[in-house]
């Protein structure tokens, strides 16, 4: 009997340990499932850039017009992110994520079948609508599962799907698109979206919103200067990276002298930089949110200028391209966390607005790049313009630090 009494606590302890291990395993699987959605989104968002020349030839348009295929998707994200996030306020998060993935899938059916340039622009816009809201709800789900001390790492794990897409998915669809036709990218993304829906339904737990959550509460929570300064920071600061990457295909072939068959290697290399930067950003953000933003954005500015000046030589161009990828991707988890912090009463809208801002930067960068190319400033010009945007972003980040310190002072007093 004595032995039984001693063994009972040990058995209970072992059972509790197994339940904890199972819970951690379930969390890991859920985060991987959510990250799969980021992978699919990354393939469609960045894959079009590696296939820009094929799209231009197929649709019989100019390179600046081809850049608008990037901008149309990005504008869909800008519009859809905050609007759809408001509807998430009182909805169970897993079901809402599945609905968004369904819309994303339908947009890619329309893109694959689009008969002309105008229809393709509309299909790209529709495909972008659920992007920001999906990342927003996925980030909130991951942060809640991981807890407050590991939230930035959990968010960076979800965002890692976007980065890994540039290592694996984008080079693969670029190769397939060059061989079989660029539209097959949309079919591949459709399959990825459907697989993500299955995985999220199987592994992600249900999450009900906080008590008292409402669309009105989310709207009230957006009345925050720090939030909108953060949005401006993301739009301006990130635009430099997109001014470079939107035209990476013609820059590498026409300026750096790379054979077009090696473009999948280039976008894969960029993706490696994104993966490294994403995890560095998650680690650094858990130590200092805005400190990470300032350091990373300052480095983005330096490396964009360096790329523009050295793009005529292949090796330096590749080196500075990767460094832009690393430093710009460090901004993703830090900016996501900062925007959530600025609007604690509007978590869904704040989380999704990050991706609207990110894609506002995508649209702005692509449009600015198209304009300076149309002005015959050359294919190096977009990265120089992007460097200027990153410098402005640093100044906005310093102002964000001031606002944060002022708010903390008011709370203490």
TrEMBL record:
Keywords: Cell membrane, Membrane, Transmembrane, Transmembrane helix. The chain crosses the membrane at residues 27-52, 72-89, 96-115, 121-142, 154-176, 182-204, 225-248, 260-281, 288-307, 313-335, 356-375, 381-401. It is found in: Cell membrane. Pfam families: MFS_1. Residues 30-405 form the Major facilitator superfamily (MFS) profile domain. InterPro entries: MFS (IPR011701), MFS_dom (IPR020846), MFS_Efflux_Transporters (IPR050189), MFS_trans_sf (IPR036259). Gene3D superfamilies: MFS general substrate transporter like domains (1.20.1250.20). It comes from the Bacteria. It is a multi-pass membrane protein. This is MFS transporter. It comes from Nesterenkonia aerolata.
